[in-house]
Amino acid sequence: MNCHICSRAPTSRLRYLCPSCARNQLYQLRIENARILLENESLGQQINNAVSSTNTHEASLERPESGLLSLRDEDHVAWSIQIIANEKAKSSLRRKLLESRTENLRLEIKKKKRNISEHKLTLAQRRSDAGSAKYQLAEREAAILSGIHNNAKRTDHLWHSLHSKTAEARIFLCREAAYLYNLRQKVKKKDGEVKEAYTVGGIPIIDLRDMNGKLRCFICQMLSKY
């Protein structure tokens, strides 16, 4: 039948992490220990009976009227004593093995308890660290976001300022270049329309709008005038 706590089979080779499994395993060892003690007691009783029987036979030998003990009875008593001694030795060996297994299980249970205690301490420390990390988390996040927004606004302001300065510098350079190249603007009236014409160093600049829809030969003639 499987354990009702960890659902392991009784013959599982895994280590005991469940107190119910360890207790069930100890029950079997206790039963074995009780059986060995009963066998030891039975063997002791047999030894006492054999010794009593031997004493009775010796007492009968001391009496002249009791007769001599037969050789078969002596062999039987010696054989019984030998069997009892062997059984007692086996019982002692089984008891030692049982005590060794019990001690190993006891040490393993202590080790598991110590590991569980250390694991609980580790979990408690982790919970404490997590609580410390979450303490005033919203306030810290708000402060960090506020700093980021301020930096973004400052950067945006610097970018606009730099853009304005760059535009002003380009305007100044264009004005100076136009002055150096003697750029002039002239206004002409043609067919009742006012047209603007530009010259650089006295050379007129072709208005590209006048070239729209014109033939190639006409464009060449216009360019040849200049």
Describe the structure.
- It holds the Pfam family ATG14.
- Belongs to the ATG14 family.
- One of its GO terms (cellular component) is cytoplasm.
- Keywords: Coiled coil.
- The chain is mainly α.
- It contains four helices and three strands.
- The chain has helices at residues 19-62, 71-134, 137-180, 216-225; strands at residues 183-190, 193-200, 203-204.
- The protein has a three-stranded antiparallel beta sheet.
- A hairpin with a 2-residue loop joins strand 1 (183-190) and strand 2.
- Helix 1 (19-62) runs antiparallel to helix 2 (71-134).
- It is rod-shaped, with a radius of gyration of 58 Å.
- The two termini are 112 Å apart.
Quick structural overview:
This protein has 226 residues and is mainly α. The protein contains four helices and three strands. Residues 61-69 have low confidence and may be disordered.
